[in-house]
Amino acid sequence: MGDPLVVHTPGDREIVLSRLFDAPAHLVFNAFTQPELLVRWYGARGWRLAECDVDLRVGGRWRYVSLGPEGARMVQAGVYRQIEPPHLLVCTELFDDQSYPGETLVSHEFTELAGRTTVTTTLRYATPEGRDIVLRYPMARGVGQSFTRLAELLHLTTTMRGETP
Questions:
Q1: pLDDT digits over 58-84, tens only?
Q2: What is the pLDDT, as a whole number, of residue 22?
Q3: Which alpha helices (H) appear in the chain, and where do they start and end?
Q4: Is the predicted pLDDT of residue 163 greater than 60, yes or no?
Q5: CA torsion angle for 38, 90, 77, 47 (degrees, to 10)?
Q6: Which of 25, 29, 43, 138 has the fewest CB neighbours in a 10 Å radius?
Q7: Which of 90, 86, 94 is nearest to 107 (CA)?
Q8: What are the C-alpha distances in Å from 130 to residues 10, 60, 66, 133, 137?
Q9: Which is it for the CA torsion 6, 1, 117, 105, positive or negative?
């Protein structure tokens, strides 16, 4: 569960995040798409999903409302563009209080090898300036904390289901 989050910036509009999880791809994909699982891991330390709406179909919308320290509130939403369980999930993303222009295209790839799954998330911003603004935020730290919570949830899931990672 200690695999670190790896962050790359391969182009002027992209951020790529990847991490290995000790669980098969179908369990990881479920954790990214089922509200009852998302509320258990999504968010940085001190944050939690207060609302989680998922209409998992191409053209369907998703919307998360997160609550954080000192009454902080963050709303993000988007539309699913491509759904290929358990290998690929592509959607758009826009924050209610977004500080950079345009929608972000988010692609989650789930690559399983020997019962372990690497999640590679590619964030493609509308502009290079938008990507640079996001890089100044503690986004990587927050995603890393969130993915640690996901690894813990997957460990519990695989242990309870008797599946070997």
A1: 999 999 999 999 999 999 999 999 999
A2: 95
A3: 25-33, 35-41, 128-136, 139-161
A4: no
A5: 30
A6: 138
A7: 90
A8: 15, 25, 22, 5, 11
A9: negative
Contact by Cβ (8 Å): 120, 108: yes
In terms of Cα–Cα distance, which of 165, 163, 138 is closest to 5? 138
pLDDT of residue 157: 85
Q: Which residue has the tokens 């968010």?
A: 43
Cα–Cα distance between 109 and 121 in angstroms, integer? 6
Q: What are phi and psi of 142, to 5 degrees?
A: -65, -45
Q: Tell me which residue of 20, 15, 25 sits closest to 4, measured CA to CA.
A: 20
Residue whose pair of structure tokens reads 């999930």 in the numeric block: 89
Output the six-digit token pair for 89: 């999930």
Taking alpha carbons only, the member of 106, 161, 153, 140 closest to residue 19 is 140
27 strand-pairing partners: none
Task: Provide the whole-model pTM.
Answer: 0.93
Could you please report the per-residue DSSP string of 29-76? Answer: HHHHH-HHHHHHH-SSTT-EEEEEEE--STT-EEEEEEE-GGG-EEEE
